Here is the input.
Amino acid sequence: MSMNLEREKAVLTGTQLSEVKSTNLSKILFGATVISMLISLYFIFIFAAEETTMHAAQKIFYFHVSSAWLAFMAFFVTFVFSILFLIKRKRIFDTYAYVSAEIGIVFTIIVLTTGPIWAKSAWNTWWVWEPRLITTLILFFIYIAYIMIRQMDGVWDKKARLSSVFGIIGFADVPIVFFAIRWWQTKFHPIVFGDGPSQQGGGIESSMLVALLVTITAFTILYAYLLNKGVSFENMKIKVDRYKEKLREELEK
Amino acid sequence: MNLFRTALLLAKKDLYSELKTKQILTTQIIFAGLVIVVFSFAFDPANNTTKAVIPGVIWVIIVFAGILGLNRSFISEQRNDTMQGLLVAPMESSSIYLGKFLANFAMMLVVEIVSIPFLFLLFDFKFNGSLGYFVLVIFLGSFGFIAIGTFLAALAANSKSSEMLLPLLLFPITTPILIGVVQATKIILTNMEKLSSAIAWIQLVTAYDVIFFVVCFLLIDYVLEV
Amino acid sequence: MIEIKKLTKQADNKLILRGVDLSIKKGETVAILGPNGAGKSTLLKVLATLIKPTSGLIKINGLDLKKDHIEIKKLLGYLPHSSLLYDHYSPLENLVFFGNIYGVNNVEQKASKLVKEVGLSFFLNEPVKNFSRGMIQRIAIARAIIHDPEILLLDEPHTGLDQGAISILNNVILSMKEKGATTLMVTHDFKQAAEICDRIIIVKNGRIVDDFKIENRNLGFVSEKYGLQMEGVS
Here is the structure.
C-alpha cells in the first residue's frame, strides 16, 4: 500500500510541474490577447479612416475578415494535426485537431453573422450568393459534420481515426468548393458586387489596411490562447477519466 | 491483380445478392419515381418555365436515390458480422472499397437508366442536346458522387445512426460535383452553343473525381481498420 | 508457429491485455480459459488481425503481423460468435464466395464436400436465413476451414450446439490437427477443452496466469487448476 502511495505522489509531482508551465503560457497568451485586442480596437475605431458610404457599419469589416482568417487557419491546423495523428497515433494530436475545429466553427458562425450585417450596409441585401460567403457556409457544414463524427459512441481512438480522415477529406475539399462556386458565380452572372472595398474604390486606404493587419494579428493571438486553453481543458478531462478508471480498478481489486 | 480480382468478387457478390432480394434497387427506383411525382406537384409540368428546372431535378433524383443505396452498402455487412469475414480475408481494405464502389455504381447506373427517361417522359421534355455529352456528364457525376459516397458510407457505418449521419457528411463534401454537373447538364440540355463552358465544368468534375478517388483509396485503410 | 511478446491492448484508458507472452508450436491444440472480461476474445481478435495491438510483437510462421498481414491472413481460419455468413445466400454460395476470396482451387467441389462433411448436404441450396442456430454454426465452421487454414482461431465454438454438432465440430478440429494445423480455442466448456486440447492456458485480468499441458482428457485436473487460479482472486 505504501508503495502505491509513493507512486501516486511521483505521478502527481510530475504533472504539477508541467501544469505550472502551461498556466504560465496561457497567462502570457491571455495578456497578449487583451493587449493586442485593445490596440486593434484603437486602430479600428480611432486610427482607421471612416468609410464614406457606409460609415460606422464598415467597422465590422475588420472583425469579419479577421474571423474568416482565424476560421480558415483553425481548419488548416485541424488538417495538419489530423495527418499527424494518423501517422503518429498520439492522443495529443487528436486533441489539438478537435479543439481547433471547434474554435474554427465558432468563428465561422461569427463570419456568417457579421457577413449579412456587412452585406446589408454595403449592398443593401442580407445574403449574397457570393463565392466566399457560400464557401464559408459549406465549410461550416463540413465541420459540423466533423463534430458529429466526434459525437459518435465508441472508444476514443476509433473516433479520432475517423474524424482525422474526415478532417483531411474536408479540408482537401475546401479549395475545390471555392473554385467551383466562384466559377459558377462568374460564368453565369455579371459581377455585380466587388469583392469588398479593395475592388470597389480601387484599393483599400492605407490606414484601413494597417488596422486590418493589426486586427488579424490580434485574432491570431486570440486563436493561440483559445487553442491552448481548449487543449488544456481536454487534457484535464482525459486525466479525470484516467483517474476514474484507476479508482475503479482499485475498487475491483 | 489480386486487388481487382477480390474487388470484382465482392462487387459480384453484392450485385448477385441484390438480384436475389431486389430490395435496394426496387426502393431506389420507386423512390426516384416518387421524387418525380413530387416535383410535378411543385413545378407545373404544363408550364414552359419548368423546363429550366429539369437539370436540377435529374440530380436531385440521383443524389437522393443514391443515398438510399449507399446507406445500405456497409450496413448490410453488419448482419452476422460479415464485415469481419471480409476483414480477416487476405485482401487489402482498398479492395473492399473498390468492390463496394463498383456494386454501388452499377446500381446507381441502373436507377438512372430507368428514372431519367421516365422523368423526360412525364415532364414532356424534348431532348435536343447532345446525347453523348449528356451520358458523359451523368456518368462522371455519378462516379464522383458514388466514389466519395461509398467512402463516407464506410465511415458512417461505425455510427449507430449512420442513416442520419451519411447525408450530413456527404452533401457538403460533394458540393463541387453537384454545382458542376448541374451547370453542365443545364448547358447540354438547353443551350448547346455554350458547349465550351460545359466542357470546362466536365473537366472540373473529372478533376474532382480523380482527386477524391485517389484520396479515398489512400485513406480507406484508416476507415476500415479495427 | 505463433510467437507473442509483451502484447498489450488498451481501449479507452482500460488495459484489456497487459503483457501477454505466449509461444505455440505447430500442431498444438490450445484452449484459452478464463472468466468473463479477462481478455480472451481480445487476444483471439488480435491474432485474427481484427484488433490492432497497442504494443507488443506478434510473429506467425516467422512473419510479422504488422507487415505481412495479407500472407498471414491466408493461414488463418477464424470462427467468432457470429456466423459471418450472408443470409440470402445458400451454404454453397457462401462457401464458394469466401473460397474464391481466399483463392481456393476447385472451390465448388470443395464447398459441397465440406457441406456434406458437416452433414447438411440436403440443404445445399437453401438460403441460410431459414437455418437454425446449430445448422448455421456448422456452416460457419465449414466457412472457417474452406481454405485449409494452418491456424484455427475459434471463439467459443461449442456454445449453443447440440451433441451432434459438437461431435462434428470436434471431428473437424481433430482432422485438422492430423493435417498439422494449430488450433487456438477460447472456451468456457471445460469438458470439450479437456476432450480435444493438449494444452490449456488460463487468462485472468489480461495476463496469462497458468499454462500447462494435459493428457488423457483429464477433466478433473483442468477444473482443479482453474479453481486454484480463480480462488486467488476473491
Summary: Confidence is low (pLDDT under 50) at residues 1-15, 187-202 of chain A. Chain A touches chain C through six residues (CB under 8 Å). The longest helix of chain A spans residues 206-252.
